Amino acid sequence: MKSNATLIALLLLVSCAYAQAQAPSANAPPPSKLSPPAMAKADANRDMKVEQHIKDLHAKLKITPNEEAQWYTVAATMRENATELDKVIDKREASIQTATAVDDLTAYGDIAQAHADAVKRLSSAFSPLYASMPDEQKRLADEVFAHRQHKSGKT
C-alpha cells in the first residue's frame, strides 16, 4: 500500500505546485484586464514554472536513462494537464466581471473537474514508471513526496 500512498503524494505535489504556478501576484491585474502581450507573457511564465517543476521532479526522482521514455510520458501528461487547466481557469477569469454567483460556482466546478481529470491522467502516466523503479528509487520517491507534502503543510 505504500506505493499507493506515494502515488497520491506525487499527484498532490504536482497539483499544489501547479496551483502555486497559477496564483497571480497580489499586485497583478486579473487576466481579463491584461493586454495580449501581457497575456502572452503570463502564459510563458506559467509554462516556464511547469517546465521548472518537471525538471526539478526529474532530478529529485533521479530518473535514469533507461527510465527516460516513461518519464517523457509523465512530463507530457503534466504539460497537457497544465494546458487543460489553463483553459478552464482562463475561461473563468475572462467572465469573472459579469459572472453571477451561479456562473462562478459552475466555473469553479469546471476547474475542479479538470483538476480531477488531470490527476487521473497523471496517475495513469506515472504508475508504470513507479512500478518499474528499483526499490531504492521508490524509497527515494516516497521520501521526496512525503517531505514535500509535510514541508508545505498542505496535502
Overview in brief:
The protein has helices spanning 2-22, 36-61, 68-95, 101-132, 135-152.
Question: Can you describe this structure?
Answer:
The protein is mainly alpha-helical and 155 residues long. It has one domain (2-152). Helices cover 81% and strands 0% of the residues. The protein contains five helices and no strands. The chain has helices spanning 2-22, 36-61, 68-95, 101-132, 135-152. Helix 1 crosses helix 4 (101-132), helix 1 (2-22) packs across helix 5 (135-152) and helix 2 runs antiparallel to helix 3. The radius of gyration is 17 Å and the shape is elongated. Residues 3-7, 19-28 and 150-155 have low confidence and may be disordered.
Structural class: mainly alpha
- Describe the largest sheet: none
Apparent shape: elongated
Share of helix, binned: over 70%
Between the first and last Cα atoms, what is the distance in angstroms?
Answer: 18 Å
For the secondary structure, the number of strands is: 0
Q: What is the CA-atom radius of gyration, in angstroms?
A: 17 Å
Order of helices and strands: HHHHH
| Share in β-strands | under 5%
Structural domains: how many? 1
- Could you list the spans in which at least 5 consecutive residues all have pLDDT below 50? 3-7, 19-28, 150-155
Output the number of helix runs.
5
- Summed over residues and divided by their number, the pLDDT gives a mean of 79
